[in-house]
Amino acid sequence: YAEVLGKGMMDLATGALIVGFSKAIVVVLTDGSILHVILHGAASVLGVLPPIFSAIGMYIFQNLLNLVVVSGSGQAALTMPLMAPLADLVDVTRQTAVMALSVGNGLSNVLTPVSGFLMAGLALAKVPWEKWAKWMLPLIGIQFVIGLVFIIIAHVTQYGPF
Q: What is the Cα–Cα distance from 97 to 115, expressed in whole angstroms?
């Protein structure tokens, strides 16, 4: 029994280390105010685009940011204080900005290497992340385009306010 337990713990240790490293990356980005610089840069770019491209830019930005901030509530806390007033300034409804956050967060959670749960699950299943990503990328691409269509529809129909 001890041998089986030791082998099982060895499998879990890899996942635990990856979870720890993932959290460390997020802590460095947050505590070093690096995320704030990224957010400010994104706001500077989105603020000069036509409204439809601003909505699309918000969606793309949220997808990319979710690769390093996997927590949906953490991402909302970081970005919405900036995206809500930005949405007002660039003629995008706040609901469209929230939709960009929600759809973007949902897509990349099954791909990001800083997701502790994903990496622990892959480690337990003995599936290398590279193999997983290669397998998931076509599906993520299709879902990204579908989400993009919904963001465009939301902007064109002036989705919200509620």
A: 23
